[in-house]
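lol forgot to send this yesterday, sorry. struct tokens for the thing we talked abt
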């Protein structure tokens, strides 16, 4: 039997995952709603009080996911769309979340996913350009370092690109960093926030532990192990699932958390700041025009891109390793659309 506290938790549609405001609500689309990330992401977005309407699309399974999720007792309306109804799914949408694509399997890198996922993301971005050109686009599909430039270039070709409204979702790196640092320091994750900059794969992930009160206490071998785990936490999940999938549940959580931050910004809430992979001036002089750093979100999407701040000697080395790899990833995405 459930305890009273458990019943109260289940009855409350807004958990600590979400911050809410009743001033403004929004229609959100999930493209790839039938997949391993898409299904739990759709469930979590159904629980977000800022979502008025949830539009679920996939080449297979979306109407079933929508029927299932629609029974959850929150106010938002849910509708599912099959493969040939993509444009209909995007009508009136203000936020588009894209988890579509194939997952990683053992031995695969995010870059191995490129050939399949690049064309999927390009085609979905083209539909967004046609139907919902002013929507904020949140890209989860890997490799994010390449798929975000693909979305940007596709929208630009269509003449509707607004760099303030295209985001790569790197929140899982931030979530992992907080969770793993909490484990190392015997703290609560609420006490261990970590800014993560760079990109969203392996060596391009740069956790800025020196700017965390708890993180700056970690050094030596413990530091090296912590950084490696943050950078390659996805491999841990792929191996543990033994060919049956990748990080779907934690990614859905992170995706919903970032979507809520975007919605709060659109709603006019001040001070909503989180790392995300966007068109950025921080390293543009080195030919790296997309970069993840702390970004303040607002009614127009990106309101302010924050500098990365002071780095430790170790972090400077991590950044040096990040930049050339990130540049290659970005150029690969651009070349695909050229």
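and heres what i got for the seq, position by position
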């Amino acid at each position: 039997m459930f305890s009273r506290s458990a019943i109260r938790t289940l009855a409350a549609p807004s958990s600590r995952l979400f911050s809410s405001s009743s001033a403004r609500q929004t229609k959100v689309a999930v493209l790839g709603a039938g997949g391993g990330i898409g299904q739990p992401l759709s469930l979590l977005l159904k629980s977000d009080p800022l979502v008025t309407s949830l539009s679920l699309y996939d080449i297979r399974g979306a109407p079933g996911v929508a029927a299932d999720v629609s029974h959850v007792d929150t106010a938002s309306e849910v509708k599912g769309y099959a493969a040939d109804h993509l444009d209909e799914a995007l009508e009136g949408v203000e936020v588009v979340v894209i988890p579509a694509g194939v997952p990683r399997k053992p031995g695969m890198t995010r870059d191995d996913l490129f050939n399949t996922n690049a064309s999927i993301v390009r085609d979905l971005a083209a539909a967004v350009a046609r139907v919902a050109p002013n929507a904020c686009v949140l890209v989860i599909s890997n490799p994010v370092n390449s798929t975000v430039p693909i979305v940007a270039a596709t929208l630009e070709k269509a003449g509707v690109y607004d760099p303030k409204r295209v985001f790569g979702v790197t929140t899982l790196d931030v979530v992992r960093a907080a969770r793993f640092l909490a484990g190392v320091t015997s703290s609560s994750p609420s006490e261990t926030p970590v800014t993560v900059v760079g990109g969203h794969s392996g060596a391009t992930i740069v956790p800025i532990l020196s700017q965390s009160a708890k993180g700056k206490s970690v050094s030596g071998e413990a530091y090296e192990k912590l950084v490696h785990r943050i950078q390659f936490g996805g491999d841990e999940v792929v191996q543990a699932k033994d060919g049956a999938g990748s990080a779907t549940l934690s990614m859905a959580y992170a995706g919903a958390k970032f979507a809520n931050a975007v919605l709060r910004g659109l709603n006019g809430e001040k001070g909503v700041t989180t790392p995300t992979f966007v068109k950025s001036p921080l390293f543009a002089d080195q030919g790296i025009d997309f970069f993840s750093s702390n970004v303040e979100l607002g009614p127009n999407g990106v309101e302010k891109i924050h500098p990365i701040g002071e780095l430790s000697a170790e972090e400077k080395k991590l950044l040096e390793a990040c930049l050339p790899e990130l540049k290659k990833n970005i150029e690969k995405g651009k070349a695909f659309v050229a």
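DSSP finds ten helices and eleven strands in the chain. anyway ping me if u want another try
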